[in-house]
Amino acid sequence: FTLPASAQLNTVNISGLWATDDAAVVIYINNIPTGSTNLGFTTLVPFNISGSGLFQVGLNTLDFELVNAGGPTGLRVDQIVGK
User: Fold this and answer.
1) Which residues contact 57 (CB under 8 A, 6 or more apart)?
2) Is the entire prediction scored with pTM above 0.70?
3) How distant is the alpha carbon of residue 54 from its chain centre?
4) DSSP code of 22?
């Protein structure tokens, strides 16, 4: 996603729900771990990412790191909102 030059980076926020199969290690913004973790697929878990130093003007990346214990794996991200 891209943030304009006029963005106030310390007020940027991304939130939503996520579930993984199997466990999830962490969500990253621009290769920086956010501390948001998820232990499995039984329920959607809320995440809320904000903070100074995570976002930048221009192109930003949002990555979800998963661990597969064998068999199928999956990621569900729902109700994602950026402000």
Assistant:
1) 3, 4, 5, 7, 9
2) yes
3) 11
4) S
